[in-house]
Sequence to fold (253 residues):
Amino acid sequence: MDTRDDLALLEAACRAGGEIARRRFQEGCKSWSKQGGSPVTEADLEVDSYLRHTLLDARPDYGWLSEESVDDLARLKRRTLFIVDPIDGTVAFLKGRAHFTVCAAVVRDGAPVAGVVYNPLLDHLYAARADAGAFCNDAPIRVSACHGLTGCAMLGDRGMLTRPPWPQMRVETRNSVAYRMALVADGSFDATLSLSAKRDWDLAAADIILREAGARITDRQGHPLVYNRAGAVQPSMVAAGSRLHDEILAQLA
Fold:
């Protein structure tokens, strides 16, 4: 199936959702803690509502999964669905940092086939569809050629990655997991990993961007990530160019 129209829909929706987030970021908005302690803001809910109505009005036969929507398990019966994180990196949003993103993917048969990660403050729109390459603001992007851990640029947990047995690396972090993945896809960083569980909406949109940019993305055991299962949880995430990815898995083992 041609995913061109789906990607165009995602791009337009994420840009408009990003404008809502940018306006709310500048004006300020209320925030509170969800069950479990993670923060949520009025902006998260406003962007979620906009994306839900815009995307499902255009594709009423698609399922829906979003961080800020009640999970309707009817999605499990849909071959194709949207997986959305209206604001990934809410902590960055609340702290006034330009590291939050609006994320949306089309997932078919458990795998993303189109995805957008949009940073509205920097106006960087990362996009990809299956077998068509990855782009940032319409310019092609490619994962770095780095193949060794020593000296590589890594996005992840500084506390873990800056002590033995890890070699010396340049380690930074970003609150948005999707943004970390996009920065690996465009070669700004060489790899990113998370050993804690992530939800489908954290990863799906950036997953296709990474793969189309030439990266490998798996869990820490090297297994591919499968989306739209009942729990919508991924056990861990490792993303890098092929040779560096193998080295990271060996280090984790």
In short: DSSP finds seven helices and 16 strands in the chain. The chain has a mean pLDDT of 96.
